[in-house]
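QA checklist item 7 of 12: single-chain prediction sanity check.
[x] sequence parsed
[x] length recorded as 320
[x] structure emitted
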Amino acid sequence: MSNSLAIAAVTATLRYVLDTAMGGTHPGSVGGAQVTTLRPDRISGDDLAHASGINLFLYLVTPNAAWRNRDLPSRGDDGTVLQSPVTALDLHYLITCYGQDSALEGQRLLGLALDALAHTSVLGPDVVAAALHEYGSADETAFLKDADLADQIESVRLSPATMSVDELSKVWSVFPQSPYLLSVGYMAGAVLLTGDATVRTALPVGRRAITITPAGAPRLLSVDTEPPGAVVQAGSVLSLQGEDLLGATTQVRIGPARLPVRPGATPTTVTVDLGAEVPAGCTRSRSCSSSRPARPVPRRRTSWPRRTGCPSPSDRRSYG
C-alpha cells in the first residue's frame, strides 16, 4: 500500500515517462518542447517560456471498482481498529499537446506521448523509483522522497480513456477563457492509499490444539412419545430417533428450552423429559451435540519451543 503522496507520485511518474521519451532520438522531434503539469488555462499564459510541449492535468479521481469491495471492515464492534483502511482510486488525466499548428507540432507530440505510454503501460517499481529520484532532488518537489508508491502491492496500470466530443467539451468548458487544444484522456489505477492508524496486534499462540474427530452432523429422523401415542404434556417423555445423535455432551433443543438427555442414550436414540419451560403448540426440536478430542492436548504457556536442561555431572561422566 502507499501513503498519501501516491497521487502526486503517479503524476510525477507519468511526467518522467513523457519527459524521457521526449529527450530520446526519434524522427520529427519538436525542439524546445517540455512536459508540464499545469491547468489547461495556463498553457497559453505569459509565464511559459516555451511555445510547444505536453501538458499532464489530473481532472478527475474516482473509486476503483475492483478494489473497493476487497477492503474488510477496518473496525470491530467496539470501535477498535482491526486494520488500516485502504482507499483504492482511479486517476483520470487529460494529456494536452500543443505547438505551432502550421508545423503540426501538437500532433507530433501527441504521437510521441501515446507511443511512450503504450510502451510503459505498467508503472513498475523501477520506473517509479527513477521518477521519484529524478524529481525528489528538486526543491519544489522534494516531498517525493517520502513517497512509497514503488512498494505498492499492485503496480499502477495505464489505459487510454475513450472520451467523446461531448465529454471533452465538458472538461474544457471549465476553462472558458482557454481555447481548445488537442487532447486525449488516460486513466491510471489502482492507487491504494493506506492510513497511519495504529492496529491492535493479535496475541501470540498460547497452545496448539489441532485435533481431527471423525463424526458426522446429527440427523433427526423421527420423534415419538413413551409410550407411543401418549399425550404430549409437561412431564412426558420424548424419544428421538436418528443418526449421530450422541456426543460428549448432548442436549435436545425444543424452542427456547434446552433439555438434557436421559441416561442410556445411544447414537440412534435419545430420550428427554419435557419440563414446564417447553412452550405449548407446534415447535421445532433439534439435537445439539459437541465432541471432545480423543487425546488431551498438553497445555503450553507460550508458542516458544521447550528448552532441555543441562545434564547433571553424573550423566556427563557416564558418557565419558
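[x] summary fact logged: The two ends are 60 Å apart (CA to CA).
[ ] second reviewer sign-off
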